[in-house]
Amino acid sequence: MPKFACRDVGVDCGWEAEAETMDELLNMIMHHAKHDHGMEEIPPELFEKVKKAIKE
Ligand SMILES: [Zn+2]
Predict the structure, then answer these.
(1) Which of 14, 31, 42, 51 has the fewest CB atoms within 10 Å, i.e. is most exposed?
(2) How far away, in angstroms, is 8 Cα from ligand 1 center?
(3) How far is the CA of 11 from the centre of ligand 1 (A)?
C-alpha cells in the first residue's frame, strides 16, 4: 500500500497516511496540505517531492 509521511519532504509535521491506491493517497495528501498547512494548491516542485517520497 502506498504510504506517505510529511516529514519525508522536510516538513515539521507528524502526519502520515496510507491508502489503497496512489490516487487515494494523493487526494488525502492534498486535503491535508490544504487544511493543516494552509496550501490551496501544492506547488509543482513540492508535488514532485511528495510523489518521490511515497513508499509503495
Ligand atoms: Zn503535514
Answers:
(1) 14
(2) 10
(3) 7
3-class SS of residue 46? helix
Determine the 3-state secondary structure of 10 from DSSP: coil
Tell me how far the alpha carbon of residue 13 is from its chain's centroid: 11
Q: 44, 25 in Cβ contact below 8 A?
A: no
Number of domains in the chain: 1
Model-level pTM? 0.92
pLDDT digits (tens, 9 = 90+) for 10-46: 999 999 999 999 999 999 999 999 999 999 999 999 9
On whether the CB atoms of residues 5 and 52 are closer than 8 A, the answer is no
